[in-house]
């Protein structure tokens, strides 16, 4: 009867000697899939990560280039948290998806002699994710012609900047006197930032417009509310002048 504890102890020792599980690979994430271009508002990208080397120094990169001032120190449990301003798009872009990365910076030790027999140091831990930056903008092609007969396709960007995923975009035609003439569903904005590359071809005015300056308002609400600078909702407006008939 006394042999059972010894056998149990041997079993426990065997289990304790098993190799430890491999550490989880480092990962990073951002708090939103898309941020506004600074021309619209000042957004900050909140970056967090886990699985890094405790107390290591890290560098943030954007599209493979070091982010100026984008360094920090990993926490005691391998976590990191930080933020930076959403980058400015170039003048030729309406939207861009960035690769954001975090890579550990190897500790410098210039005084230590090189040992040719020593194994190479492990590669610095790193991780990559993505986020989008977008302007809020709308346009149509062709951009010139007789507005009474012109047929166009619309393109738009940035309609997910308030956090709505794949929002439906509506077009409201506002008469020169400020009253709503008609509302139509334009399409579903896709991607991280809510974009439509080209809508179905359609008449700029699907009715005979009276002369005067019309307002075409694009937003994500079927019910019309006039957008102003102080409006809490996302909208974009285009002014179209309809001249008297020749």
Summarize this structure briefly.
By secondary structure, the protein is mainly β. 6% of the residues lie in helices and 41% in strands.
Secondary structure blueprint with pairings:
Layout: H1 3-16, E1 27-30, E2 34-36, E3 44-50, E4 57-62, E5 65-73, E6 80-85, E7 95-105, E8 126-134, E9 137-141, E10 151-157, E11 168-174, E12 180-188, E13 202-203, E14 212-219, E15 235-242
Parallel strand pairs: 2-8
Antiparallel strand pairs: 1-3, 3-6, 4-5, 4-7, 7-8, 9-10, 10-13, 11-12, 11-14, 14-15
Describe the structure.
- Helices cover 6% and strands 41% of the residues.
- By secondary structure, it is mainly β.
- A hairpin with a 5-residue loop joins strand 11 (168-174) and strand 12.
- The N and C termini lie far apart (113 Å).
- The strands form four sheets. A five-stranded mixed β-sheet has the order 2-8-7-4-5, with no helix packed on it.
- It has one helix and 15 strands.
What value does the average pLDDT take?
89
Integer-rounded radius of gyration: 29 Å
Helix content: under 10%
Low-confidence stretches: 1-21
How would you describe the shape?
A: elongated
Beta-strand residue percentage: 35-45%
Give the distance, in angstroms, between the N- and C-terminal Cα atoms.
113 Å
Largest sheet: 5 strands, mixed
Helix and strand run: HEEEEEEEEEEEEEEE
- In spatial order, strands of the major sheet run 2-8-7-4-5
Structural class comes to: mainly beta
Number of helices: 1
List how many beta strands DSSP finds: 15
